[in-house]
Amino acid sequence: MSFHRKLFLALALSILGVSLVFILMTHITVKKTLEVGIDETRGQEMKLLTQELTAYFLQNNDSWNDLQQIDVLKTIQQDDPELLVLDKEQQIVYQKGDSSHQLIRNLGIKGDIRIAKDRVGEFYYYDPEIANFTKVMIGIPISVVFILTVTGSILILISLIIAYRLSKWLAAPLQKLLPVIDRLGKGELGIQVQTETKDEYGKIAEAFNHMSKELEHAETLRKNLTADVAHELRTPLTIISGKLDYLQQQGKMIQPETLLPLQDELIRLNQLVEDLRILSFAEAGKLTLDKVPTDMSELASQLLFALEPLAEEKSIHLELDKHTNDTTVLIDANRMKQVLLNLLMNALRYTPENGHISIRLLKEDNQTLKVIVEDTGVGIEPEHLPHLFDRFYRTDQARSRDSGGTGLGLAIAKQYIQSHGGNIEVESKLNVGTMFIIQLPL
Predict the structure, then answer these.
(1) Is position 190 within any domain?
(2) Do 256 and 315 share a domain, yes or no?
(3) 320 and 260: one domain?
(4) CA–CA gap between residue 299 and residue 320 (Å, rounded)
(5) CA distance to 343, 376, 410, per residue, from 414 (Å)
(6) Does residue 328 sit in helix, strand or coil?
(7) Would you give per-residue pLDDT tens digits along the chain (442 residues)?
(8) Is residue 192 part of a domain?
(9) Helix (H) or strand (E) holding 113
(10) Which residues pair with 317 in a beta bridge?
(11) In a domain, 103, yes or no
(12) Any residues with CB less than 8 A from the CB of 293 and at least 6 apart, and which?
């Protein structure tokens, strides 16, 4: 059953249920009101008759014999009162008046006669005024029920029409979305659904469009990854294959130094495979972290000291700028060292002579340690910034693999930071410098 029909059925059952309950409650209320009116009108008479009949039954040794000999209605001050008394076997033991038994029973007021909670008989009191009142009591509830049934049926019909239109209107956005979802399930990634409203349906459509775009982007990344891995592997494999072919064609003894280029390419292959393994583990959330309390100030000082000889070759000034003493965080020191080393090596590569590279440490909102690696290098063009942390992405496509590594360094750095519950961003201006901002939870 479709959502539209389910919704309509639910609304229809709710309308019918509410209508029936309303009619029933109205009938009961009217009936109870009339019964209260009768009790107020003849309540005193019924009480007197009950007392007199009970007293007679007790005084006559629990018997109704000879009840017909007394005038039970002598205390009743109404016009033309009539009375019908029955024992517990429903046999008539007393009748006063000319009306038929059936009429008195139907239009009279019934009272029970009880001795110590045991029912010993019953009586029906009747007079013309009560007869009219009882007729009204019977007629009004029936009339009310009839009127409510007729008007309720009309209202229910109108409500069902409204419910049908409403359910169809509510289900319309989903009916538009379902074919698009089906097309997405068949592999048509990136497909979009038109959003015409800003309500919950509009938000669902926007979420679907975002998901579709993300799936398309993920599929593009997957295909690009396959192509990039093949491209990265092709270069060292081509070199190794060419070298081996050349050595075979020479037909001479192979000198150890001749194998050194092959060993370099094998090292590069191993590094590429290891980087891909680590990256896949990090992206899957399965990367093992050995977290210990680590002073980021001390870690940064060690790295800057280790890179001092490389910086001196280009007359680059290295500096640690600490703005807080609360620099201890729970991290995997080796992973974080790899992140900072990658950023610092990139900074050294793109910072010209007499430049400046700094690591700044400052605390933000008492919950986050901000680590900023900043240089005065050539900067990064704005169109490259959104893709800087993608796998195998290089801002300088002409740069050789020999000088540029595997192209996975920043992608791995981002995954390391996120595995620690942190975040990394980049800001850059051409010919001014680049700033990588790392945020780690304290």
Answers:
(1) no
(2) no
(3) no
(4) 11
(5) 11, 22, 6
(6) strand
(7) 565 567 677 777 777 777 778 777 876 776 777 667 666 677 888 888 888 888 888 888 888 888 888 888 887 878 888 889 998 888 988 888 888 888 888 888 888 898 888 888 999 988 888 777 777 766 666 776 677 777 777 877 777 777 777 777 766 776 777 788 788 777 778 888 777 677 777 777 888 888 888 888 777 767 766 666 676 677 777 777 887 787 778 777 777 777 777 777 787 777 777 777 777 777 777 778 889 999 999 999 999 999 999 999 999 999 999 999 999 999 999 889 989 998 999 999 999 999 999 999 999 888 899 999 999 999 999 888 888 887 777 665 544 444 445 667 888 888 889 888 999 999 999 989 999 999 999 8
(8) no
(9) strand 109-115
(10) 356
(11) yes
(12) 328, 329, 330
Are residues 219 and 256 both part of a single domain?
yes
> What 3-state class would DSSP assign to 63?
coil
Is 335 in the same domain as 255? no
Q: How many other C-beta atoms lie within 10 A of the C-beta of residue 235? A: 15
CA proximity to 439, closest of 304, 305, 339:
339
136: CATH? 3.30.450
End residue of a domain, out of 283, 301, 321: 283
Domain region containing 60? 3-148
* Residues 306, 278 share a domain: no
With beta carbons less than 8 A apart as the criterion, state whether 297 and 329 touch.
no
Distance, CA of 147 to CA of 139 (rounded, Å): 12
The helix/strand/coil state of 424 is: strand
Q: What Cα–Cα distance (Å) separates residue 183 from each residue in 180, 220, 228?
A: 5, 18, 29
- The span from the CA of 352 to the CA of 375, in Å, is 10
Residues near 377 by beta carbon (within 8 Å), at least 6 away in sequence: 347, 350, 351, 352, 355, 433, 434
Picking from 230, 248, 283, the residue at the C-terminal end of a domain is 283
Q: Are 303 and 337 in contact (CB under 8 A)?
A: yes
pTM for this prediction: 0.51
Number of structural domains the chain divides into: 3
> Domain with 214 in it: what CATH number?
1.10.287
As a whole number of angstroms, the distance between CA 400 and CA 398 comes to 6
For residue 370, give the nearest of 326, 335, 333 by alpha carbon.
Answer: 326
CATH number of the domain to which 311 belongs: 3.30.565.10
Same domain, 208 and 127: no
**C-alpha 385: how far from its chain's center?**
34
Place of tokens 């996975």: 408
Check whether residue 326 and residue 420 sit in a common domain: yes
Do both 130 and 69 map to the same domain? yes
Residue 156 lies in a domain: no
